[in-house]
């Protein structure tokens, strides 16, 4: 009997070791994931697009009517540096999944981080997309130089480094995306053939070769990244501090804020709870309860970011270059990044050409934002305002730039003359001012508030 038990466990161990077999590692620790001959160690998931081996490369072919198809490694990886070369036909995009999974709770659908491969004029190669979950995390509008490093007519080297919560990409060794995120810490690598709708895109090819991975790298790949997306609530990372970022809210204290026109933070109308700075519901009136709050410091040229969460039908705003010099019975006066539930609040239908909708320069310039980039009430959205030393101003929502203008330009002054601000002398032209969060009588939460001077 004992012999049978020993034999059973021996066979079980042998089966387990075969199931998790991996390619041998080289002396420097790199492991080749594709042997150049066949698809051993890979499995197709979700769709039915075809993958073959041709001339030492894995070739995926688009198939009309198929959903996104993935060729996934049988192995899973946690911390690593991944390198591969890729070449794709024109007018399509693709990607390589990492720290991705296909689990029962998602009905087997592949989900996780994806390094974008984009041969179109958009040039978002190297961006980071969250497949079947949150969508774009680091679109390459944040770092155009990284995306433009991709050559649509030749082979391109892509590098992905994921160590702890820090995820970085390079395109042909040019730094592309830097994401700090901790949703998934382990998963497979997978090669995507994207679904297509247009008949003329059927049969397009994506080619991958020289796919290798280094687990638990002892050092970090060198690279200077100009922008970092950090999704960890109220977290200010060391790389962000090195770029000059300052936290304006740590999740527990309102010390960096005071009431507009006051010396201290309002005693009513606002609260700090569960890592959120929240303006409370008071019936929808403008600055009639706790009132607006402003930064204690003033800013001239800056990059300001926060996350906001609306309740249904809510209205608020972020104002900048607020000087508190104008007499007003309602909210303090300043240039305003509108925060609004466009689907429910009537103000979205007022003004001109949508210039009172979410992320617009309120009553002046409408935001050009596709609906797919905006998350509904109850979910967190990211707002960003950039004021450059030359007075160029940008509004961003969820890392997509939605408007741009120049303070003091002829166009700007003409817009002001035809707006609600026409009676405020030198409106929006102060050399510096406070940043304001508006109390418009609706519950809105803020977090991850940070700024850096430019």
Description:
The protein has 454 residues and is mainly beta. It has two domains: 26-215, Exo-inulinase, domain 1 (Jelly Rolls), CATH 2.60.120.560; 234-453, Exo-inulinase, domain 1 (Jelly Rolls, Sandwich). It has four helices and 29 strands. Strands 1, 3, 4, 6, 11, 12, 13, 15 and 16 form a nine-stranded mixed β-sheet that branches. Strands 17, 19, 20, 22, 25, 26, 27 and 29 form an eight-stranded antiparallel β-sheet that branches.
Helix-strand layout with pairing:
Layout: H1 2-19, E1 30-32, E2 42-45, E3 50-54, E4 57-61, E5 69-73, E6 80-88, E7 93-102, E8 110-118, E9 128-131, E10 135-138, H2 144-148, E11 156-163, E12 166-171, E13 174-180, E14 188-193, E15 205-215, E16 229-230, H3 238-242, E17 246-247, E18 257-259, E19 270-273, E20 276-279, E21 293-295, E22 302-310, E23 315-322, E24 335-340, E25 380-387, E26 392-397, E27 400-406, H4 410-417, E28 434-437, E29 444-453
Parallel strand pairs: 13-16
Antiparallel strand pairs: 1-15, 2-5, 3-4, 4-15, 5-14, 6-11, 6-15, 7-8, 7-14, 8-9, 9-10, 11-12, 12-13, 17-29, 18-21, 19-20, 20-29, 21-28, 22-25, 22-29, 23-24, 23-28, 25-26, 26-27
